[in-house]
Amino acid sequence: MTENGEEPFPEDGELVVATVIKVENHGAYVALDEYGGMQGYIPIQEVSTGWVKFIRDFVREEQKVVAKVIRVDREKKMIDLSLKHVTEHEKREKIKQWRNEKRGMKIFEIVAKKLNMSFDEAMKSFGRKLIEKYGGIYPALEEAVRRKKALKEEGFEGEWVDVFVKVARENIVPSSAEINGVIELCHNGSEGIEHIKKALRALIETDSDSIGVQYLGAPKYLVTVKAKDYKTAEKIMEKGIKRCLSVIEDVGGHGEFKRVEE
User: Fold this and answer.
1) Which of 104, 202, 243, 258 is the most buried (most CB within 10 A)?
2) Are residues 216 and 191 both part of a single domain?
């Protein structure tokens, strides 16, 4: 329930996890796992990009699916959904997010018990604020693990904060992302090696906690960036490579960078 007592609805375009409860020739009825079992409907034309002769070749009762919301009727409390507009990558990421949030809610129950509060009391007191800030309980737990003072720095206060952080650190291993690329650095001058070393130092010093460099054989070096998520890793990589190439080019050398696809 929302704060005003209304039942929440998914938004158009939102990805949802659902359980198939009934399959008919014209489509499938599902229960939305994240919305209290609210009913949704997948028309047969939204099941697959290809021709669907037998719908049960694609969906079956009790199957978990990831669907995209295409229409919301709040009066009838009916949600129209699509399977064909969900990519495999989106499906994997959504299932991962859903499982993490389920785990996050179980950990949140532990926090509530340690505070001698019911789950609902804890959710009303501070849980909803965490969800609003971080997009879910699990991301809030991850942030508390990554940075112990993160919640207090965001303005959260109260006895619950230290308990939340302690329980998070006892139960969560923070997720991380890794990206790689190969950089080629060349300088034909007498001090070429020193110039290349200087350029590589500039790369690493961009974020020494996240960037690693491995020699592959002249003139190639493997660059690895590890960060809390891919977006952050990409930004660190871009900034580091830009600094590295700037240093080598300023002294008459040249460089080239290529990402290594995972």
Assistant:
1) 104
2) yes
